[in-house]
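Now for today's protein:

——
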Amino acid sequence: MKRLFLLLVAALALLAPAVGQAASGPAIAFNPSSNDYGTIDANTTSSQTFTLRNSGGKGTSALKVTITGSSAFSVTADGCTGTSLGPKKQCSVTVRYAPTTLGQTDSATLAASSKKPPATASALLTGKANGSDCDSIFNDPFFDRLYGALGTSGTFAAGDVLTLSAGGPENPGPFPTTQIILSVDGSFATSAPFPGGTIVYTFATDGFYALQWNSDSGGVTWTVSCAPAS
């Protein structure tokens, strides 16, 4: 009887590792487990690569990677979909954030899953697009002694209206000032006669713009304002 008992104990000891291994299925997780893409300009992009690792005792079946939520997030490189991920193995997925509307706030979930044996992993994605800088341009006079050239850059929304007028000239150049000029992204946009003329420029699309305004001769005193799109 005692010998039979010892044989049963030995048999159970031999079975224990197998039982433990059977209980330890695949265990997958993304690193990082979440990512905030921060605040970026509309119509620009930011990317993050996520590593999916299987720390479990069994491999997965073919993986499937999905994103649910905002369409501003998309997979641009996928080394995981269709892969059976073995124990201690890893693969990677790259997700791009590309907001198109000023001020938008976005969130989504990156997920990976396999059916048999079942395994799931997810990562939270968040991001925001800059709003318009129009309201940061005030009705203050500006004066520049180098031919009246001034400028700024920023994000503007479709429908924002920039208004420029000039007085003086306070620092006459070699020739009489006859016009004021606005350039956008390095190209001529519009002009108005000086004195008395006013430039009114309406932004056609959301985006980041480099602006420069100048007179054709002397330095002048500028009044600059921007009315946000209604």
Observations:
- Residues 145 and 207 are 30 Å apart (CA to CA).
- Confidence is low (pLDDT under 50) at residues 4-22, 143-147.
- The chain has two domains: 26-129, 134-227.
